[in-house]
Amino acid sequence: MDALVGKLSSLISQGLNLKNECLKNRIGGEPRRRVQANYYPPSPDPELTLGLAVHTDPNAITVLLQSQGASGLQVIHDDKWLAVAPLPNALVVNLGDQIQVLSNGRYKSVHHRAVSSKVLRVSLAVFYGPNKDTMISPIEELVDDEHPPMYREYKMSEFLDHFVRQRGKRRMAKEIFQVQKVAE
Ligand SMILES: O=C(O)CCC(=O)C(=O)O
Ligand SMILES: [Fe+2]
Question: Would the pTM count as exceeding 0.95?
Answer without folding.
Answer: no
